[in-house]
Amino acid sequence: MAEERRKRATEAFYGRRHGKTLRPKQGAALETFLASALIDLRRDPPSDLTSLFADPVESVRLEIGFGGGEHLLGEVARYPQTGFIGVEPFVNGMAKMAAAVEDAGGLPGNLRVYNDDATVLLDWLPAGALAGIDLLYPDPWPKKRHWKRRFVSAVNLDRFARVLKPGAPFRFASDIDTYVDWTLQHCRAHPAFEWCAASAADWRTPYDGWPGTRYEAKAIREGRTPAYLTFRRTSQ
């Protein structure tokens, strides 16, 4: 079953998997981290997704492409009764997360990760299992010929709709105006999602508890304005 799910993932929505070669200490920290945090998709998903976590949790959220983990680790600490799954295929990003977890004293009991294509994980998850999805500063694939590789698409919104509980949010942040417009168009065209903004302030204001990220700081320095979009999974 796992192999069939992997074959259904038709596009690579991320770029390179590796950056700078990891130092031995980084590699060891990453190996230790993945040994206890990595979700094994070779097994069938549990009927109750909260059972994936060492600590008792009431609900589960997903962050796709967590980068260095600034936002994800902040949410993990703010919401100890929520389980968080973080997806990051970029090895150096996962290594930064591993180092941060090691520095903080060990793996939080409400955190698990996956280090490959998020679509495979989405297809593995049970229907209606998630209380939220965050897609923050994803690769914008700015060239038109690469737009099909943008993670926001009708097919992936179908995936989101399947795994989100009714009323659960899908949050998207980006500093690339063409990708913001793209996401608005796709989500407003999808019957399972409605945009929650009532005024411009709603998408110009960072999310509650937003820590900022290094990507966002770079965007602001370069004169780009971030947008913070929130969509709600409808009951349809």
From TrEMBL:
Gene3D superfamilies registered for this protein in UniProt: Vaccinia Virus protein VP39 (3.40.50.150)
GO cellular component: tRNA methyltransferase complex
E.C. numbers: 2.1.1.33
Residues annotated for S-adenosyl-L-methionine binding in this entry: E63, E88, D117, D139
Pfam family, one: Methyltransf_4
Biological pathway: tRNA modification; N(7)-methylguanine-tRNA biosynthesis
Record field: catalytic activity: guanosine(46) in tRNA + S-adenosyl-L-methionine = N(7)-methylguanosine(46) in tRNA + S-adenosyl-L-homocysteine
An MF annotation (GO) of this entry: tRNA (guanine(46)-N7)-methyltransferase activity
Binding, substrate: K143, D175, T213, R214, Y215, E216
Keywords carried by this UniProt record: Methyltransferase, S-adenosyl-L-methionine, Transferase, tRNA processing
Function: Catalyzes the formation of N(7)-methylguanine at position 46 (m7G46) in tRNA.
Similarity field: Belongs to the class I-like SAM-binding methyltransferase superfamily. TrmB family.
Record protein name field: tRNA (guanine-N(7)-)-methyltransferase
Organism this protein belongs to: Nitratireductor pacificus pht-3B
Higher taxonomy: Bacteria, Pseudomonadati, Pseudomonadota, Alphaproteobacteria, Hyphomicrobiales
This protein's encoding gene: trmB
